[in-house]
Amino acid sequence: MAPQNDRPVRPVVDRLRIVRLVAWGLVAIALFGLAAISMGYLRTNGLTGGSEPIATIGGPFSLVRTNGERVTEKAFLGKPTVYFFGFTHCPEVCPTSLLEMGTYLEQLGADADKINVVFISIDPARDTPDILANYLSAFDPRIVALTGTQAEIDAVASAFRVYVRKETPDPKTGDYNVDHTAALYVMDAKGQFVVPIQYKEDAASAVAKIRRALTG
Ligand code: NI
Question: Is it the case that residue 70 has pLDDT exceeding 60?
Fold first, then answer.
C-alpha cells in the first residue's frame, strides 16, 4: 500500500502506542491473576508461613454420635480434629478415605491420641446412628461418626463448604449415590481450619499436616 502522504502520520503512531499500552495492560492483569491464584494455592495448601486462618471453614454444629449422644463442635476443641464427610453406601471414596485415615492414625503412633477424627454423614436419611456404628466397626475404632437431621447435615456441610449432591434414586431399588467432597479438613485445637488433606494423599504428607496442627 502506498504511503498516504495526504494524511498526517501522528495519529497512526498514537494508535500503535495505545495498542501497545493495552497489550501491556493485559499482560499485567494476567500476571496479577496468576500471582493471586498462586498465592491462593499456596495458602490453601499451607505452604506459606501465615498463621492467620484461611477464610472460614468449619463452624458451630449440633449432631448425634453413634451412641445417640448429641454433641457440638465444642466436644472436639482442645485437640486438633480431622473432619471428613461421606456416607455408608459410598461405593469407593469413603471406604478408601476411612482406611487411609486408619493408616494415618497408625503412623501417628502415640500422637494419634492427641487428635480427634470425625466422620460426618451427608446421607442422614439412610445413615442412622446404628447403621453408622455398624459400618464404622470395620475401620479404626478411634474414628467418631456423626449424623443428624437433614437440616443439621445441610448446615454443617455448608459451614465446611462441602459439596453434596444426591443423585436421583433408582426407580426400581430406590438406591442412590451422593456426590461429595472427598477432602479431609485438619482443624487446630481451637477449631480453626489449618489445611486440607486430599483424597488419596500420600500418607507421609498427610501425617506431616496433622503433626503441624499438633505443634501449631
Ligand atoms: Ni463417599
Answer: yes
For the chain, give the percent of residues with pLDDT over 90: 74
Distance 83 CA to ligand 1 centre (A): 13
CB burial of 92-111 (b: ≥16 within 10 Å; e: otherwise) equals ebbeebbebbbebbebbeee
Distance set, CA 85 to CA 93, 111, 147 (Å)? 10, 23, 10
CA of 18 to the centre of ligand 1 (A): 54
Cα 197 to middle of ligand 1, angstroms: 15
- Tell me the per-residue pLDDT of 78-135, one tens digit each, with 9 for 90 and over: 999 999 999 999 999 999 999 999 999 999 999 999 999 999 999 999 999 999 999 9
Pull the grid cell for residue 128: 442412622
**Ligand 1 center to residue 167 CA distance, Å?**
13
DSSP string, 152-169: HHHHHHHHTT--EEEPPP
Give every CB contact of residue 12 below 8 A, 6+ residues apart in sequence.
none
For residue 39, how many C-alpha atoms fall within 13 Å in the half-sphere facing its CB?
A: 8
Q: What is the pLDDT of residue 42?
A: 46
